[in-house]
Amino acid sequence: MTPAPRRAGSIGPEQPYRMRILVSDTLSAAGLEILRAPGFEVHERLDLAPAQLADAIGGYDALIVRSRTRVTADIIARAARPKVARLSIRPPSTG
Question: Which pLDDT belongs to residue 16?
Answer without folding.
Answer: 77
